[in-house]
Structure formats: structure tokens, C-alpha cells
Amino acid sequence: MNRALLPAAEAGFSLVELMVALAIAGLAATAVILNLPSTTATPAIAAQRLAVRLAAARDMAVIAGRPVAVTLDATGYAFALRRDGAWVDPADRRLRRQAWPAGVALAPSAGQGSARHLVFDAMGMANAPLAITLSAGNGTAVVRVARDGVVAIGGARP
What dihedral do alpha carbons 26, 29, 31, 33 form, nearest 10°? Predict the structure, then answer.
């Protein structure tokens, strides 16, 4: 049938068709929003991010052939690279100072002060084993650095 012969009332979409299309689009948008990751900071997520950055710092120490240090305190953690006899900030922006996410805190540790200092040597070895406990109202998580430089997440409790 020729479209030019159709009456104007039959051309386009009906109101019902438009309402059905909008309802389907609304349901799809709702499904997407409900499946987005939570923005609530948890110790487990903060521990994963810290562990990845610690492993990157260890790798940087091996590749550059220079010690890399990390200092952890109540506000966050920072990395430094040993260059020409002094500690300098790494050029890699991923290893710049990071603050703990809101609600996540560095848990106090027996026998350690408020700040903790760890150094990876040019072979990737840590100067001492270290357990870093992060806590929040929704649980705790532990990042462990072994003497051989291996970084692992363990002891997570909901």
C-alpha cells in the first residue's frame, strides 16, 4: 500500500506504543543502576588497591634498580624512590600520595607507632615483614608483605 494514501491519523506512533517504549527504557535503566558497584568504601576494596600499589612499588624497585619506600599513616600512604642519595616522589602518578577512603582507617598495630615505613630494595625484598590492617564499621582487611616482597591480602572479615 502506498504511504501517501494513508490518512494522517495512521502515520507515526500511537501514544500507547510510545508509553510501552518508555516503560521498557525505564526498566532497562533501573537494571543498570541496580547493578552498578557500590560507592561505599570498604576495607576490602581499600586493601586491594593498596596491595596492587605495593606490588607495583616492588616491581618499580626491581626494574629501576633502586629502593622504593612506602610510608603509611593515619591519613593515607605515600611512595618514594631513592635517587642520588635522597628520597623523591615517583614520576608515576599512580604511586603518588593516596588518602584512605572516607570511613576506612589504618588500624593500630601492637609494637608499631602511628606511622609505618616499608622499603623494597633493588631485588624486590622488603626490609621487614609487615601486616597492614584496614578497618571500617563494615569489617577489616589485612594486607601482608612478606620479607621476600610478596604482597598478599588475607584475613578479610565481613
Answer: -130
Q: Among positive and negative, which fits the CA dihedral 81, 82, 86, 91?
A: negative
Low-confidence ranges of the chain (pLDDT < 70): 1-11, 37-41, 109-115, 155-158
**81-90: long-range contacts (C-beta < 8 A, 24 or more apart)?**
90/60
Quick one: pLDDT at residue 158?
37
On the CB side of 6, CA atoms within 13 Å amount to: 8
* Sign, CA torsion 72/73/79/83: negative
Residues 6+ apart with CB under 8 A from 77: 50, 53, 70, 71, 97, 98
